[in-house]
Amino acid sequence: MQAVLAKKIGMSRAISEETGAVVPVTLLQVGEAEVLTVKTDEKDGYSAVVLGAFPRTVKQKNKNQQFKFVKEVCCEAAGVKVGDSFGAAALEGVAAVKVTGVSKGRGFSGVIKRHNFARGRETHGSHHHREPGSVGMCSKPGRILKGKRLPGQYGAKQVSLRSAKLVQVDADRGLVAVKGAVPGAKNSFVFLSAVSA
After folding, report:
1. CA atoms of 72 and 171, how far apart (whole Å)
2. Which CATH code is given to the segment(s) 1-29+89-122+147-197?
């Protein structure tokens, strides 16, 4: 199974062997993902595997609570049994991966930060600097339509990169380098799965 659970370390750079160009990469620490549960079509109605990585220091009674990061992966569970483990070696030979994580939470944000609106001018008595501007309408329909870009909660949502290039895999140290930025803050957890070419 070409899927791993990882923790974001931070940004770095790598030098391309072909062109010598500097490539920005995100370093990820891959944890040994242990198979906690195997779900089958006969028993559960679908095929999936529940993986757990990064064990807690304090033992919990529930097996799923013994790990900091638990993820259910929909896949063919043939040949996979409880107790098997997957590390960074599962991604060797893979060119691109799908990266799923939770983006940084930015709280309640205005339209400039949330939707990239332009500022109002600062001179000649203008009172419009960071406000969204007029949002009302006439008597019909007499309300603000859904989907209007306004201030609100920004970030802290699940984000997926569909096809991120895998630059380097170090199975011995459990490190993976993915080209570009990866959603989430430092020390946040991400899920990587191989993308078919």
Report:
1. 23
2. 2.40.30.10
Q: Which tens digits make up the pLDDT trace of 18-57?
A: 888 999 999 999 999 899 989 888 888 888 999 999 988 8
Domain residue extents for the chain: 1-29+89-122+147-197, 32-86
pLDDT tens readout for residues 65-79: 889 999 998 887 677
| Cα–Cα distance for residue pair 53/84, rounded to 1 Å | 12
> Cβ of 116: how many Cβ atoms within 10 Å?
8
Using an 8 Å Cβ cutoff, are 62 and 87 in contact? Answer: no
Architecture in CATH for domain 32-86:
2-Layer Sandwich (3.30)
Q: Which two tokens stand for residue 56?
A: 């807690």
DSSP 92: T
Per the CB < 8 A criterion, the answer to whether 19 and 172 are in contact is no
Mean pLDDT by 10 residues, the chain (197 residues): 90 89 95 90 89 86 84 82 87 92 96 94 90 86 90 95 92 94 94 85
